Amino acid sequence: QVQLVESGGGLVQPGGSLRLSCAVSGSNFMLYHITWYRQALGKQRDFVALLTSGGNINYANAVRGRFTISRENAKNTVYLQMNNLKPQDTAVYYCSARLRETATDYWGQGTQVTVSS
Hints:
The chain is built from no helices and 11 strands. By secondary structure, the chain is an all-beta fold.
């Protein structure tokens, strides 16, 4: 069973930065595609960033140029570096893992990011 644990959320002022972490338990970490999503209060869950097992990266238009997704295979961890944060980035951020060539998604519990002065 794959388990994901997000951390690194918090309260930050506009223009500030945070780095979220997604720790993935289990074997074959390098074979997983990892996706970050976010869900603002009362809204649907939206795609933020994807890092495939092959190293391909994609970002939502709203975060491109401000957010960076990366992975550290030795720690089974994926990061989301968020810079120049805006109030509209406020949301619960979730990471999801999918073993390549499968259709099962595993989810973490989420971490709250609040951008406010």
